[in-house]
Amino acid sequence: MAIKKIGILTAGGDCPGLNAVVRAVSKNALSHGIEVLGFKNGFDGLVRNEFIHITPQTVSGILTLGGTILGSSNIANPFKYTLPPFGTPENPRNMSSVALHNFKENGLDALITIGGDGTLHMSQQFVELGMPIVAVPKTIDNDLSATDQTFGFDSALAIATEAIDRLHTTAQSHHRVMIVETMGRYAGWIALRSAIAGGGDIVLIPEIPYNDDVIVNYILNRKSKGKTFSIVVAAEGAKNEQGEQAVARTVAGSTDAIRLGGIANKLSDMIESKTGIESRACVLGHTQRGGTPTAFDRWLSTLYGAKALDLVLEGKFGYMASFRQFKMTEVTIADAIAKLKRVDPNGEEVKSALEVGMSFGSAQIG
Ligand code: F6P
User: Fold this and answer.
1) Confidence at residue 253, expressed as pLDDT on a 0 to 100 scale
2) What CATH number does the domain containing 89 carry?
3) Residue 138 in contact with ligand 1 by CB distance below 6 A
4) Which residues are tagged catalytic?
């Protein structure tokens, strides 16, 4: 089938590199004479039929731009639509047939969806309803098993590492314990890699349950050796041995009902009261998702976008562009959502961190 017109959307949380993917898809498509509609605010644009016509001018100068020119949403799920005037959090409505109708009415031959786990799930649901979709994996969390790296992760890692570098100076000058809270949801990739890259002393990740006493003893031991400060890097999803996580709030009706957050403040109070050492929490939050993408993310995003359009041209619908061993390839979206990628507590990275003297706050590991 000749492809004449495609749609593109960016869904879920924003991250550096989204615009670079939109640019790469669009440039590749426009060079083939394919018309491109950019749906606004993720799947919400498909439900409401809100889009822009993408021209060469639309995507000019956006390679280095953070965020997404199309807008995004992590609450607009067409299968459980909670937004007015169609639905509410109490009464979610299935608006998938409206989205399908809009897809057909606009004469689209394919849709490229750029998003994380939630977006991939919705994309797969639409694939099962017959919508020809190709997906591109996005998330700063890097928690998709079907690709070696998602775009956005490298930029988040660079931001977190720079923050740890900067926090070292206050920790040193004031002889404090600084606790840095990173994002990452249920995977510890940002925390682990930034702690290794930034020279953190303790790193707490969801994959390795921590124990308060192990953390306290490690800090006191450092002090007894003349180290007057410590840096703790805590993933927002880190769990203690009782399985407790810090939850900032819950949001009914959202595709992401549990908002993690608060572990750094909790640890800061615990560490200060148990060690007597002044402690401070620093929550990096959305700074990790903001600003211009790193060179690596611009490069990776461009490869992802170009590949996604290639998959459309090959008629490989129901597939996701994937990055394996520094080459672009593809996997089915169904396979991509089957399993999350999490840090292996017995893997090479954890072993290396331990070998340079880092602690995971656990008596079992180390
Ligand atoms: O999945 C990306 C992510 O930034 C997570 O690391 C974080 O838990 C979540 O999204 C935050 O979402 P929101 O922008 O809705 O607060």
Assistant:
1) 62
2) 3.40.50.450
3) no
4) 141
